[in-house]
Design goal:
The protein is an alpha/beta fold. It has 16 helices and 13 strands. Helix 1 packs across helix 16. The structure holds uridine-diphosphate-N-acetylglucosamine (UD1) and uridine-5'-diphosphate. Uridine-5'-diphosphate binds next to helix 1, helix 12 and helix 13.
Length: about 375
C-alpha cells in the first residue's frame, strides 16, 4: 500500500450482516483518524438491502454514520445485481479513486466491489476472508472464492480460514487473524439489548420460547420445502412458542403458503438490539443464517442449523451450534433433545473477544505508515 497525505479508504456494505460487521471497523478507523492517521473514509452502501428493517434500522441502532455514497442498486437476479453494483462502483472510483477498499463478508456486494477495485488497481482488504462451506450451490461460496482469489489482504475470524487461505497459496504476510467484527458489535451492544414490543403480548419468558430465522434459497425458495420445514418445526416445538422474524425473501414464499401454522409467530425482521435480546433469552435458535450461529455461540444459546455444511466450523466444534441438515425429518429429534435439556454447552472461539476491529486498524496503521 502506498501512503499519501490523505489516503481515501472505501468501506463497502450492502446487506444486513454487512452493516453489523462494518460498525466497529468504522468506529476504529474514526478513532485512528482522531489520533492523527492521515486517512479519510468513504462509506459506500450498494443498496442491495434497502427496507428500513433490513438497512437504516442498523445504522440508527449501531451508530453507523450515513453512507457517503448510496449506489441504490436494489434487488435483482445474481447477474443483474452484480452488474449494477460493478457499474456504479466503477463510476464512483473513476470520479474519486480510493487507496484501499475494505469489503466484509460474502454477499454479492462484497464480490462485485472487489472485482471493480482490483481492476482499477485499488488494493482490497477482505474482512472475514478465507471461510469456505464447500457448497457450490450457495452464491456466497462463489462470492468468497472470487473475492479471496484477488484480494490483497485478509482479516480472518478463525484458524480454519487461515489454513484455507494458505492452501489457496496466500502468503502468511497477507493473512491477519483478527477475530470477528460481528462479535465486536455484539459485545459492544450487549448491555443495550432490549425486548421487542411483542414480548409482553406474546407472553414470552426467558428460556420458554424458540427463535427461528430462515432465508437461504435452498430452504425458502419453493413452497414445498418451506412448508415442510415450518410444519416440522412447529410440531417439534410442541407447546413452546416459536418467534419467527421473517426475512423479505422468505416473506415471498410465505405469501404463497396462505394460512398461518399454529405455534409459529411471524414478525417483521427485527432491529439488532431486539433480535439479539430474543436470542440471548431463548431456549434455542433454529436458523440457516451464518451470523446468527456466531452470536448464539457467544451468547451460549443452543443453535440448530438447517444446513448440511457451514463455513463457520468453530460454531460447531467449539460453540453451541449443530448442523441438523436440510431434511425436515431431522428437526423433530433435534428439538426433542433440546427440550429435554440435552444440548451441548459451548465455548468461545479464539479471539472472538470484541477487539477484531481494533486489530484491523492497528495493522492498517502499521501498513499504511
Ligand atoms: C443476501 C445475501 C446472503 C445474506 C443475506 C442476509 C447474496 C448472494 N446473498 O441474501 O448471503 O445471508 O443477504 O440477509 O448476496 N428484499 C426486500 N427488501 C430488502 C432486501 C431484499 O424485499 O431490503 C427481497 C427482494 O425481493 C430480493 C430478496 O429479498 O429479491 C432477496 O434479496 P437479496 O439481497 O438478493 O438476497 P438475500 O436473500 O437477502
Ligand atoms: N438479525 C437482526 N434481525 C433479524 C434477524 C437477524 O438484527 O430479524 C441480525 C443478526 O443478529 C445477525 C445478522 O442479522 O447479526 C445476520 O444476518 P442474516 O441472517 O441476514 O445474514 P447471514 O449472517 O446469514 O449472512
Amino acid at each position: 500500500m502506498t501512503p499519501s497525505p490523505s489516503m481515501l479508504i472505501d468501506i463497502i456494505a450492502g446487506a444486513r450482516p454487512n452493516f453489523i460487521k462494518i460498525a466497529p471497523i468504522l468506529a476504529a478507523l474514526r478513532a485512528a483518524i482522531e489520533r492523527g492517521a492521515p486517512w479519510r473514509t468513504r462509506l459506500v452502501h450498494t443498496g442491495q438491502h434497502y427496507d428500513r428493517a433490513m438497512s437504516s434500522s442498523f445504522f440508527d441502532q449501531l451508530g453507523i454514520p450515513a453512507p457517503d455514497l448510496n449506489l441504490e442498486v436494489g434487488s435483482g437476479t445474481q447477474a443483474e445485481q452484480t452488474a449494477a453494483i460493478m457499474i456504479r462502483y466503477e463510476q464512483a472510483l473513476l470520479q474519486e479513486r480510493s487507496d484501499l477498499c475494505i469489503v466484509v463478508g460474502d454477499v454479492t456486494s462484497t464480490m462485485a466491489c472487489t472485482i471493480v477495485a482490483r481492476k482499477l488497481g485499488v488494493e482490497v482488504a477482505h474482512v472475514e476472508g478465507g471461510i469456505r462451506s464447500g457448497d457450490w450451490t450457495m452464491p456466497e461460496e462463489i462470492n468468497r472464492v472470487v473475492t479471496d482469489s484477488i484480494a490483497n489482504w485478509f482479516f480472518t475470524t478463525s484458524a480454519t480460514a487461515n489454513a484455507n487461505l494458505r492452501a489457496a497459496g496466500v502468503s502468511d504476510d497477507r493473512i491477519v487473524f483478527v477475530g470477528n467484527t460481528m462479535i465486536d458489535t455484539l459485545r459492544r451492544h450487549l448491555h443495550e439489548l432490549r425486548p421487542p414490543e411483542f414480548w409482553g403480548t406474546l407472553g414470552l419468558a426467558p428460556k420458554k420460547y424458540l427463535v427461528l430465522t430462515l432465508h437461504r434459497p435452498a430452504n425458502v425458495d419453493g413452497e414445498g420445502k418451506l412448508l415442510a420445514h415450518l410444519r416440522a418445526i412447529a410440531e417439534g416445538a410442541g407447546p413452546v412458542p416459536v418467534v419467527f422474524p421473517v426475512h423479505p425473501r422468505t416473506a415471498k414464499g410465505l405469501q404463497a403458503l396462505g394460512g398461518a401454522i399454529p405455534g409459529l409467530h411471524y414478525v417483521e425482521p427485527l432491529g439488532y438490539l431486539e433480535f439479539n435480546y430474543l436470542v440471548q433469552h431463548a431456549l434455542g435458535v433454529i436458523t440457516d443464517s451464518g451470523g446468527v450461529t456466531e452470536e448464539a455461540t457467544v451468547l451460549g444459546v443452543p443453535c440448530l442449523t438447517l444446513r448440511d455444511t457451514t463455513e463457520r466450523p468453530e460454531t460447531v466444534t467449539i460453540g453451541t451450534n449443530e448442523l441438523i441438515g436440510t431434511d425436515p425429518g431431522k428437526v423433530g429429534p433435534a428439538l426433542a433433545r433440546l427440550r429435554a435439556g440435552q444440548w451441548k454447552t459451548g465455548g468461545i472461539p479464539e479471539k472472538w473477544d470484541g477487539e477484531a476491529a481494533r486489530r484491523i486498524v492497528a495493522f492498517l496503521e502499521r501498513k499504511l505508515r
